Amino acid sequence: MRFKYGCNPHQAFAQVEPIDPAKLPIEVVNGTPGYINFLDAINAWQLVQEARMALGLPAAASFKHVSPAGAAVAVELSPELQRAYEVDGKTLSPAATAYVRARGADPKCSFGDFVAISDPVDVDTARVLKTVVSDGIIAPSYAPEALEILKAKKKGAFIVLRADPEFTPPARERRELFGLRLEQDRNDVVIGEQHVQHVLCGALTPAAKRDLILGLVTLKYTQSNSVGYALDGQMIGIGAGQQSRVDCTKLAGQKADVWHLRRHPKVLGLRFKSGVSAQDRINFRVRYIEGDLVPVELAELEAALDQPFDPLTADEKSAWVRELTSVSLTSDGFLPFRDNVDHAAKHGVKFIGQPGGSNRDDEVTEACKQYGIAMVHTGVRLFHH
Fold it and tell me: Which residue out of 225, 283, 340, 350 is catalytically annotated?
């Protein structure tokens, strides 16, 4: 199948073909995908399929540029999150709930995402997707009415892919780059309870085990280096593709803070004028939290509000962030220094899952004990490129 183009429009020729023509793992139902769309779909589908298998709950992912902006399983939303995610009063099926959580983790990065759903897409999920800026979706099947809603999106250009849940990929993977063919065994490790058994310090709650497993599955399909923060069945901050692990930890922590601040009473209390769209309200709240508004942004926000502009102060932010707790952190590689723990502790982390194997494992473990953080060694590295 020919794509619209490759990674960039000037790469005019791009296509995909199955290794075995008799076994098509992905079918195009609507639209014309691009090269990056397909890369996102392949990674996102594997993530949600594995999360579904590991946790027994419908799973969803929101992908951008071959890394998840968010991933989640179907855990009921609190009233505060319903308001923050702009779904209060809406009927949400488990599949729709999983996607709302996945996209809600980092709505700025999810803008124009590629969606993956582990379960059949129902009308509730399609109605959520109808209201957001997104490029396409991959799922195992679609209810007829849901499919019609999706096919009408983006003037008929919304990409709809159907994945074969029974497809088993080959044991070896190959890619060709710069006149060379690279080959490796597929990363077929199956993430599960066995990876959260080796507890070095503290104790894990059932919720922490779920969140750590979700984090590990998510990082398996996130560009390395990567660190993820999870809470209540969803990723709330992902630091992807950083050369320094502590930078991953800081980046993911900053995103987790913004996610938590979106539940601040002052943020939820912002009154917008009639006619401001749900997506614009979400975007305005994020920029209001970040606070570094340039003059044109400040003018746009003030014009959208039906109240005087009252900034969220640094002290108000700090006090609210200190209330964040019970967060689970996962890392695709070992933590080489205790600084990762020092920074994680600033963002409510109480549970850590990492491979172990650093020369400073004892120092990292001691840091966890000082902060009252439980830590497990998963024994598996999950680098992904």
Answer: 225
